């Protein structure tokens, strides 16, 4: 998926209409992927292959959606609007994740024993509800594709900034620049480790909370509010960064400090037999939601700092590399989870450890604003 994304980004740099073509291509892949999952086939083996194929197509479209926000903001917005545009474009993607936290528990009955007996559904009823969700997703994706097909221009008539009109490095030179830039590697790890761990942790949040008697519905609401709160705070922080430039490192230090404290609070609360901290619904909600707010809201700030640090490396390549690293850390964590799935305290401790490591890396990082410097100096 990462190499697929880089082909998209390089194509966007060389063709005036490529952003529109890329969006249409990725949205069409999502339509095909969602459609394959809805094909009514009675043979379970064929149905499983169709679902896997649909997930593969959806996965191929995913990296472009996740990484294109900085490129979109540079192409369309002025320097005092870029961070806000990046935040909106990148964090709106997270609202789909927030909806997923609710759709599953509210539409599909839980198969485990965390709900009331009346709420537990039969296998056929659960199957019907899952199919209803798949059909609804296919309809929404088709609507988005139709809207993009009707109107989605690639770029404005005139570049909004000097950086938007300037040349970028080639694909090969960009990778050489990234791999030889120690400062970029520092912030890449500072982003990839905690966000990868958090993505893996939040994906199995219902399993983590089940041993402490938290229902699947409550786990879904916790995930929902943590993502929504992260979107709101992230956009607010990005707007602050647009008003007062050169504060990206300071904002990240604040967010990562809060994430370290919130994750430590949650982990110690789950060890109530050792720490004797009160284990209540309020404390679980508060600590989990605060953790999600601090980490999710850091994503657009990280993206802007990546672009500023390695400019003139194309935005999609730098953000694609760090997204790839984040997925690697998430995959490694979930791989270990397949062997150590009977007890989750080690998984919880990975959260404060990764946040603290990221905080130390950002603390040692020397920030620079090469793209902003170009816009300010040349425009003057």
From TrEMBL:
Record-level GO cellular component terms: lysosomal membrane
Membrane topology type: Multi-pass membrane protein
UniProt cross-references to InterPro entries, sorted A to Z: FLVCR1-2_SLC49-like, MFS_trans_sf
Alphabetized UniProt keyword annotations: Membrane, Transmembrane, Transmembrane helix
GO biological process: pyridoxine transport
Bilayer-spanning residue ranges: 20-39, 91-108, 132-152, 182-201, 221-238, 250-277, 283-307, 319-340, 346-365
Protein localization: Membrane
Protein name, as recorded: Solute carrier family 49 member 4
Organism of origin: Ficedula albicollis (Collared flycatcher)
